[in-house]
Amino acid sequence: MSKRESKPIYIKNAKISIELFKQICYCFSLDYTASYTANKVGLSRQTINTYYKIFRNYLCSYYDLFEDSTCTIYGIKLHNQYCYYLKKEKNYFFLNQNNPSLNKVKLFLNQHPLEKFFEQKKSNALRIGFNKFKQEYFLFAYFNCDDGLNSYIQQRLKKFRGINKNTTELYFCESLYRFNNTQEDLYQHLVCSFTLL
Q1: Residue 140: in which H helix or E strand, if any?
Q2: Do 172 and 139 lie in a common domain?
Q3: pLDDT tens-digit profile of 91-110?
Q4: Which of 131, 139, 142, 164 gives 123 a disulfide partner, CB atoms 3.0 to 4.6 angstroms apart?
Q5: Does residue 81 form part of some domain?
């Protein structure tokens, strides 16, 4: 899975030390709730939530480069709305609208609205192939399948009470990143990606 280069993210007017910021990153990487982290590092839950939201927005905008080939599109229904991801071999990709490497996949999806398809077919996955000559995707099959990620996300989100519908996608993206990476990977990614000003 190819990684794109990412530019440092600056957090302006940060009123905490670098060491304390690293502690927050570490707690986030261990998937501690904001309340637990606030008690652990001695800050308010509101402050922790602010940093957690920054992290989640970053993970939702971050993407890995995707090489066009046969893959599977999955849909998971959270809070009465669908979130989608791709599985290619053992790698998972969020269907990020800002990811240019997914342009051909998005063109296919414009012609095959997923939500309507999943509701009509009572399935949660599409297998799509890639025609290298025509440089376009085509439908192989649709089916029901729990590849492990669906169960992981559903189980993980149970510990967060009252997730706002508008933030469902943020928690979904975060869960997808956690499923793809180790806790140490997440911690190092956050620490190396942000600079306090």
Answers
A1: strand 136-143
A2: no
A3: 889 887 788 899 999 999 88
A4: 142
A5: yes
Question: Could you give the 3-state DSSP secondary structure of residue 129?
Answer: strand
Domain that holds residue 56: 6-61+149-196
pLDDT in tens, 11-33: 988 889 999 999 999 999 999 99
Looking at the structure of the chain, the number of domains it has is: 2
Label each residue of 14-77 as H, E or C.
Answer: CCCCHHHHHHHHHHHHCCCCHHHHHHHHCCCHHHHHHHHHHHHHHHHHCCEECCCCCEEEEEEE
Nearest residue to 178 (alpha-carbon basis) of 159, 196, 195? 159
Distance, in Å, from the CA atom of 142 to the CA atom of 101, rounded to the nearest integer, reads 23
